[in-house]
Amino acid sequence: MSLNVDQEILEDFLVEAGEILELLSEQLVDLEQHPEDRELLNAIFRGFHTVKGGAGFLQLDPMVDCCHSAENLFDQLRNDALKVSSELMDLVLQALDAINSMFQRVQQGEFPDPVAPQLLAGLNAMASGQTAAAPVSAVSSAASVHSDAEVSAEFDKLISGLDVASSSGAGKVAGGSDLITEDEFDDLLDQLHGSHGAPGVVSVSTAAPVSDLITEDEFDSLLDSLHGPNGAPGLSQAGLADNSADDEFDQLLGGPAHAVSAAGSLKSVPEASSVGGELITDDEFENLLDDLQSKGEGAFAAVNTAAAVSQVPSDAAAAAKPQANKPVAESNVRVDTRLLDQIMNMVGELVLVRNRLVRLGAELDDGEMAKALGSLDMVTADLQMSVMKTRMQPVKKVFGRFPRLVRDLSRQLHKEVNLELRGEDTDLDKNLVEALADPLIHLVRNAIDHGIEEPDVRERNDKPREGHVLLSAEQEGDHILLIIEDDGAGMDPDKLRALAVKRGMLDPEAAARLSDHECYNLIFAAGFSTKEQISDVSGRGVGMDVVKTKISQLNGKLDVDSTLGMGSRIEIQVPLTLAIMPTLMVLLESQAFALPLVNVNEIFNLDLTQINMVDGQQVIIVRDKAMPLFHLKRWLMKGFEKDPLPQNGHVVITNVGTMQVAFVVDQLVGQEEVVIKPLGSVLHGTPGLSGATITGDGRIALIVDIPSLLKAYAS
What we know:
Elements: H1 7-33, H2 38-57, H3 61-78, H4 86-107, H5 117-129, H6 138-142, H7 153-170, E1 179-181, H8 182-193, H9 216-227, H10 242-253, E2 258-260, E3 266-268, H11 271-275, E4 279-281, H12 282-295, H13 306-309, H14 314-324, H15 337-362, H16 367-390, E5 392-394, H17 396-399, H18 402-412, E6 417-422, E7 427-429, H19 430-451, H20 455-460, E8 467-476, E9 479-486, H21 493-502, H22 508-513, H23 516-520, H24 543-553, E10 557-563, E11 567-575, E12 580-588, E13 591-596, E14 600-607, E15 612-614, E16 617-622, E17 625-631, H25 632-636, E18 648-656, E19 659-665, E20 667-675, E21 689-694, E22 700-704, H26 706-713
Parallel strand pairs: 6-8, 13-22, 17-19
Antiparallel strand pairs: 1-4, 2-3, 5-7, 8-9, 9-11, 10-11, 12-13, 12-20, 14-18, 15-16, 16-17, 18-19, 21-22
């Protein structure tokens, strides 16, 4: 069933709720490790409450039900009626998965399916079955206020505070039914504010984090600040106008016929839903208090500094009041990513023009022209960097899912694992953020399954029972360095050699010639796995091959190192962006080709008469290391398939995944930033080419895709 809601409101909900749900996964795992963190507990409660409010406004009842049950459970945790346990967290994480699943349906424009009744029953049973009996005040008993998990602690504290106020003669809430009349609610507001509010009182916010609960002392201080120590002298309720409380109620809600949505903005709703005609039910009053508390409005706005407020002189407070209500200017603007891509494309065109002008200017002996071109170069570079930053996202968008992944996997494998995250604020292109998710998941799962030993084994090896996995990111020049490191068992190079021979990947002589470092790189070969038994976690030899392929497609580099008994370390280098690429420009005959600079390791001239043959493949020896040599012109230029190697030539050594390959080229032009343009219909799909660009001298250059080039010609 498709959704029939206001699209603007739906988009706001998807953005805000999506961010909250993404954060909740990390917060829940953190809470399990730090159950005493009250601020974190309250933040999770508010998260479920906010999503529930936004879903309720859109009438997404299945999401509301699941969020409400989770919210009740965390309310019990906040009141110390329950304790955080692994079983409880398992249930809550299942609920979060269900909410995420429903959220995805909403993103697709579909109405969410109801959650499994067993899950809701489990949440409600855990919340109600262990609920501790709470003291009920006289007023709440008279009004038959609920005492179960659905009643928030703030309501109990508020009513308790009103008992104190009523004893001073300001009035008392009366009634013997479950409903409170509008007059009774007006009286309650009068007790809080008097007939015309509280002159001279200003709500003061504080940056210090506080608990969601207010104590009776804080509430008494708030009442004193509103009415003075002895109630509200000189104010008679009998003389109040009937519409005074209505105005107060409208102000409390943020304006007539408005309710504060939990999604974080003011939404217009029918007036009957807020007041309910003449009567307001307990549930409606509870929801009102929840909304006020989550937004820090109404009586809750002054809770943080109630004692300080009571000492503010009335004239100073009156002067400060307009400042407190001053709206905050909007600092963010939502922009369609397609517009950002279009702007990036235009900046790319500007870069090409800049390159052309700089090349022409170098040929002229004109000082003023050189200065103008220098300014153009600087401004273009700054503009390019600024536009690139608009496409950047913190790598935390990827890292945020790993605490949950590690938590679930360690419980499944009966291991104890501590995950450390570093550099979560490192920014990179949004396309790279999305593309890196799968490779990193494979690597972290591999580190836990293959690397980290079981707790008893670690103890026997004089290691802590809890294993350690590090996931870090940092910017190094024009690329991002990602590190996945563990303190597990490490890799045995001799075992890797034997497995490669056993699986028919290498013959014994070739395996014996491999260095230890080259042995470690065998784990990225297709079908290679060190697991003897296949499980639902690993053992099929697919995951690491996927990692190598994906990183190669991103023009990245992989490097792996390990120490037996100490652990393993995998480094990944990827460019900051894929839109504008630094390249090494080379010539084959008269045709220009661009090699991605991130793949280029070194360049030198070589005596090509001193090459060697190994297993029928030409190789060169560089610093005692053999690497395959290929004549690039034979692959990319028609009519030169049998062209002999020159006696001396320019050799470019490139990194492809975990291996190094040498290419012979005719001429080196130099380094140049290029903008990737898609190939036309004639060249589209040509192996080894990823696009085209225009060089600084106006020629068309083809951009070489080194991984696909090797796959097409060297295999």
